[in-house]
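Translate sequence into structure tokens.
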Amino acid sequence: VQLQASGGGLVQAGGSLRLSCVASGRPFNRYVMGWFRQAPGKEREFVAAITWNGGYTEFADSVKGRFTIFRDNAKNTVYLQMNSLKPEDTAVYYCAAARGGSGSLSRYNYNSWGQGTQVTVSS
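Result follows.
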């Protein structure tokens, strides 16, 4: 599956952004979808994930209560709604797709990745 992420930008602390990731090439509803991020000088980290039907979601502790993830299978799109943004949320955000895995969604086999979209939060 090919993934195209968009929606990043520059926002002040406390603001909101919504990221989108459109999938093509494979049946979208067969994939667990996740969002990851990588800040300069840091390793990529898990942000959020959602099961194929949207019935279950997981979030990193650092974004719980501020971010939500949802999907529209009819539009082959997964979204990351980010509220109450903080400067430490600044990173390149990547969407990813996994066909399988076990345990935590953060550890699923994400083998398709989008190109990333920059999110910058100013203080």
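Note: The chain has a mean pLDDT of 96.
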